[in-house]
Amino acid sequence: MKRKTITGVFVSAIVFFTFASPLPAAQLTVEVTNLTHGIHFTPLLITAHDNATHLFQGGATGTSSLQSMAECGDISGLVSDLGGEDADTVANPAGGVLAPGTTTVASLDTTATGNTHLSLVAMLLPTNDGFVGADSLKIPEIPGNYIFYLNGYDAGTEANSELLDTSGCSPGMPGMPAAPGGDAGTGGTGVASSDSNPSVHIHRGNLGDTDVSGGFSDLDSRIHRWLNPVAKVVITVQ
Amino acid sequence: MKRMTRVQWIGAALFLSVFVALAGCDNDDAAPPAREGTYRVVVTNLTGNQPLSPLGAVIHFGGYTGWEIGAAASPGLERLAEGGDPADFLAEAQGNADVLSTGSGSGPIGPGASDNVSLTTTPSPDLRLTWATMLVNTNDAFIGMAGLSIGDLAVGESKTVYAHPYDAGTEENTETASTMPGPAGGGEGFNAQRLDRDFVSAHSGVVTSDDGLATSALDESHRFLAPVAKIVVTRTQ
After folding, report:
1. CB hemisphere CA count around B186 (13 angstroms)
2. A152 interfaces chain B, CB cutoff of 8 Å
3. Chain-centre distance of CA B7, in angstroms?
4. Which of A13, A200, B21, B233 has its CA 20 to 30 Å from the CA of residue B217?
5. How far apart are the C-alpha atoms of A153 and A58, rounded to whole Å?
6. Interface touch B230/A23, C-beta < 8 Å
């Protein structure tokens, strides 16, 4: 038994120092491009954190802070959850929405925190509770440019009715809060009345229709659909 | 959490090295190398409304291929992709000399749910993993990975990959109730007739009755975009 214990310590030590090195990546820039044709991103939250932190996880129920981001574009709850000391966070680098085809850049310095992983979220508009997300990407340690492509997620917290309601937004309230492109319709009867999967999952995309004053949806199927990926991220490690 | 500085880490490493070296002196004969490796495959269903059929998983060397894009599906893969039963797919694998271990999941995996299969074999740098499962509210859509390298995993390490949907090409994508075995259709699963293009390709998604295919038993909730599942492979011993 003694030998087993000692061997265990040895193996643990080797694995630990080989694969869990805490040496920080130091300075990096994160460039985010909206790859969609007709979907805006609400203010982005980009954060470096330790390997145990998640803003969301596929297959898990979203937090109330995630719900606020995914339904209303409000990242303040997630910023608060991350805390000031242990995370390197950039909120709203684009100074507002990130339009289709445009790019923004954020700079992070993990020297003081030694943070090793990166997460990113922003709501997709117009959707009910869709968001673009990166869940805890390992920040590369060797200087260089690294490209990641991100998918559209569904927070699972609101039915995808695809009905526009610009009267204000609070989590749990049905409806899409805005269509920044000004290209949505009105008078839809509603696409979905419930969410079959209440946990965070890959968004099935908007349905839309071609009737601007009726039909199922207030969205335009020729404008508001997408395929994954919806964002390109270039991490430059200096 | 307070973090250690680089100097502290180096100090800790040296301390542990000395400890390990001293500890090694207590034992005359070296510990034998690990003889078995166990690989746990966890699949999480990331679709909105597409249950997955029970997993089929295979660990193998390079001489086995579960499917190839552009080539006809094997009869076992056809049965898995049309009816959700992995048994024949796994039996075919077991007949291949390069296959080391096979296993199946505990049951269907609902949207948002996970299931896992653990397979044990002799570790080797050349180990590969193949797994597959059906999207049951379709005619013959399946997801999986053919030959993911897992031989580089040390004990305790894992790798996370996202899976894209394939079309087995063995049944036309009519989406009628009588031809889909899942809860949306409740119809026939496997049928040995090959009525489609008869080669495996990427799947183009479902159309559904809400998007103009009046004869479809599917509604807009059954649509999916890639990726449709997350897979985490962990070497547990």
Report:
1. 2
2. yes
3. 42
4. A200
5. 8
6. no
Instruction: Report how far residue A101's alpha carbon sits from residue B204's, in angstroms, rounded to the nearest whole number.
Output: 24
Query: What is the spatial distance between Cα A85 and Cα A69, in angstroms, rounded to a whole number?
Result: 22
Q: Going residue by residue through chain B, which has 237 residues, state the pLDDT in tens, using 9 for 90 and above.
A: 345 555 455 445 444 444 444 444 444 455 555 589 999 999 999 999 999 999 999 999 999 999 999 999 999 999 999 999 999 999 999 999 999 999 999 999 999 999 999 999 999 999 999 999 999 999 999 999 999 999 999 999 999 999 999 999 999 999 999 999 999 999 999 999 998 899 999 999 999 999 999 999 999 999 999 999 999 999 999
Of all residues in chain B, the one with the smallest CA distance to A202 is: B46
Beta strand A117-125 with B229-235: parallel, antiparallel or unpaired?
unpaired
Peptide bond into B108 cis (omega under 30): no
Mutate to test the interface with A, among B49, B225, B228 (most CBs of A within 10 A): B225
- Whether the ipTM is more than 0.90: the answer is no
Write down the residue that tokens 């694995």 correspond to.
A15
Is B147 touching A (CB cutoff 8 A)? no
B202: distance to nearest CA of chain A, Å? 14
How far B220 CA lies from chain A's nearest CA (Å)?
Answer: 7
Whole-prediction pTM: 0.86
